[in-house]
Amino acid sequence: MEVKHRAARSLVHRLASAPVRSGAFGEAAAEIRRLSKDDPEMRSPLAESGAVPLLGSALLEFDSSAAEAQENASAALLNLSISAREAVMSTPGILDALAAALRLPCPSTAQNAAATVYSLLSVDEYRPIIGSKRSVIAALLDLFRGLGVTPTRSIKDALKAIFLLALYPLNRATLVEMGAVPPLFALVVKDGRRGVVEDATAVISQVAGCYESVEAFRRVAGVAILVELVDAATGASGRARENAAAALLNLVMSGGDKAVGDIMESEGAESLVRELAEGVGGEVSARGKSKAADLLRVLQRSRGSHLVHGLQEDTETSTDSAPQSLLFSSSSYSNSSFHSSIN
Questions:
Q1: Distance between CA atoms of 280 and 125, rounded to whole angstroms?
Q2: How many whole angstroms separate alpha carbon 22 and alpha carbon 178?
Q3: What is the rounded distance in angstroms from the CA atom of residue 200 to the CA atom of residue 155?
Q4: Closest residue by Cα to residue 258 from 191, 308, 320, 325
Q5: Are the CB atoms for 56 and 91 separated by under 8 Å?
Q6: Which tens digit of pLDDT belongs to each residue from 263-309?
Q7: What is the structure's pLDDT at 42?
Q8: 24: Cβ–Cβ under 8 A, 6 or more apart, which residues?
Q9: pLDDT for 152-173, tens place per residue?
């Protein structure tokens, strides 16, 4: 192992001794990229020897003459983040470097940066930290705002990162505030690339888990889009249908009666959810059926409650202003939705 440490120190010394725009820096970055990919045991020695801040510094500003070096630096950081996440995350300024890399014009560099953020977010403790870095969130969102321009792989890596961000409940309102909802639904409606709809709906199902999502979904007709996705006749995949049901359920759990009312206003919502709960259309997992069944119970309870309330008003036997809450205890549900569904 000492041999690997010596090799790592030598490479990092070469990196530190060369200007970013120089060929020597590019060669050292390429070598670090290659070694960190081919030999996982080199990742920790490279990180411990100080490679991370040097690689990160190469990403802060675009330089057309150093585009290849920046691509190699971003790929090397991604490789290091797989085995040395703590060393990467603890490097001062690394999130600023990744935010800058996400906006670089080289698609592969931006993709590597998105994948690195995703890798770091696999650690639960890092989610609130990265979630407080608005420049990172904004750059990730911009990646999938470029419909038809951003490569599929970059969009999927950005969606994966946003998904993990949204697993931390306090990040959801931030995502809504920063405008995540419109581009997410735009991906569902307008982007026909394989897997993108499934990944976008998985993210939507998480973002739905905050009260702020109710109004945000209303502004883009989100509930109607999700109800339509539940319908097997639209040709949506089983995974997309399940994610749509999970999103509606999480919206109900976070938005209360307002969200229930929005769903009930969508024509045929209850019958479509029932079909999903019964497995109509095939490709429906047991978990998907369970989510749909939970949502169906809420909708049925809503319909029954409103019917009783209406009868009370007609017969003037009650002057109560509103029925009690239609929701079950939040402990009955899990706000997480289909973490394993993102590829």
A1: 40
A2: 38
A3: 9
A4: 325
A5: yes
A6: 999 999 999 999 999 999 888 899 999 999 999 999 998 876 653 34
A7: 97
A8: 14, 17, 18
A9: 999 999 999 999 999 999 999 9
Residue 304 pLDDT: 62
Predicted confidence (pLDDT) at residue 203 exceeds the cutoff of 60 = yes
Could you tell me if 214 and 277 lie in one domain? yes
Domain assignment of residue 232, yes or no: yes
Query: E strands, the chain, where?
Result: none
Which pair of tokens denotes residue 97? Answer: 């470097």
Is there a single domain that holds both residue 243 and residue 94?
no
Residue 34 lies in a domain: yes
Q: Check whether residue 104 and residue 202 sit in a common domain.
A: no
User: Is 60 part of any domain?
Assistant: yes
106 and 178, same domain (yes or no): no
| Boundary-marking domain end, from 64, 95, 122 | 122
Residue type, 99: A
DSSP secondary-structure letter at 322? S
Task: Please check whether residues 97 and 15 belong to one and the same domain.
Answer: yes
Report the C-alpha gap between 40 and 251 in whole angstroms: 42
CATH for 68: 1.25.10.10
| Amino acid (1-letter code) at residue 117 | V
Cα(135)–Cα(318) distance, rounded to whole angstroms? 54
Is residue 44 within 8 A of residue 83, CB to CB? The reply is yes
Domain residue limits at 105: 1-122
Q: What is the pLDDT of residues 86-143, one digit of tens each?
A: 999 999 999 999 999 999 999 999 999 999 999 999 999 999 999 999 999 999 999 9
Q: Confirm whether 135 is domain-assigned.
A: no
